[in-house]
Amino acid sequence: MLTGGLPAATMDAIAARAGASKATIYKWWPSRAAVALDGFLDRVAGTLAIPPAMSAPQALTWQIDALIQIFRDTTAGPLMRALVAAAQADPDIAQALRDQWLGPRRAVSLEILRSGVRRGEIRSGLDEEAIMDQLFAPVYHRLFFGHAPMSDDLAAIMVAQLMAGIALLLGAYLAISGLVRLS
Amino acid sequence: MLTGGLPAATMDAIAARAGASKATIYKWWPSRAAVALDGFLDRVAGTLAIPPAMSAPQALTWQIDALIQIFRDTTAGPLMRALVAAAQADPDIAQALRDQWLGPRRAVSLEILRSGVRRGEIRSGLDEEAIMDQLFAPVYHRLFFGHAPMSDDLAAIMVAQLMAGIALLLGAYLAISGLVRLS
Predict the structure, then answer these.
(1) Fewer Cβ neighbours under 10 Å: the N or C end of chain B?
(2) Does the pLDDT value for residue B50 go beyond 80?
(3) How far is B98 from chain A (nearest CA, A)?
(4) Which CATH class is domain B49-176?
């Protein structure tokens, strides 16, 4: 699964590598995607802890950077690639990924975001789900498509760009576009 | 492929649906993923045109919105899901997706971004690749994981949040974080 992706990791191959019968493997996992999911969750266990005493932008940067390191430097990267492939045709895997991976992680990130709002670091009235995606989706995108590297400074750059905005003159942008209401 | 994903679309099934022999299908396409790629590119042909006389934020919003509509409302959505699944274990498909889909689209978006910098709408010195991902990756992320809807206002919200930033007080944020240098 790590080297050949999901197509190479047949239940036969998994049983052979484990030195167990295929019946034994099927007794515990209904599919090879389920094996991948358990392997992935095992590798990422404990990666949700956030250091205390960080501002919201610092904590979000820390989280994105942890995700980059997990995907880029550990076997969780190829396992996530196998899982997203399986999830496109297997609703159970898609649901399990949302419930056991994306959901818990997003809950932690949302609490960071909201604490930032309470502390006056971040505006209120924003689209929280869209913010999550604008910070974390790029990491998955680069893992799945390989169009750009998961570089060491990516997390800090993305948080900085989203925090400060990319408009040259914020007031002029607001006046021209009518897109934003500062709350 | 549209209803059962890549696993259901065997070359046998494709040949049967097309009323052709499997040999004929293989003559033109080396794999079912290659069939999916041609089908996808056929459906999205001509979706790169940008209306003239738009500001950079307007044009980027227009582009993201077009992508959302393509993925949400046409068969290009399920085809892209089949393609990303195939790309995780098939480097040829991954390369073709980068060369024939992501690359040309990003080139157009980059030119929009740079014209925005030239016109004074957007700051210079930003990470262009990261901006592209912070605007477009969320659409793919929602297509692949289904954790949040591709809503009608998503494009405008994401552009607004990235243009104006999410910090409550930009100056205070800059001073606290030291993350950003305004160019």
Answers:
(1) C
(2) no
(3) 6
(4) mainly alpha
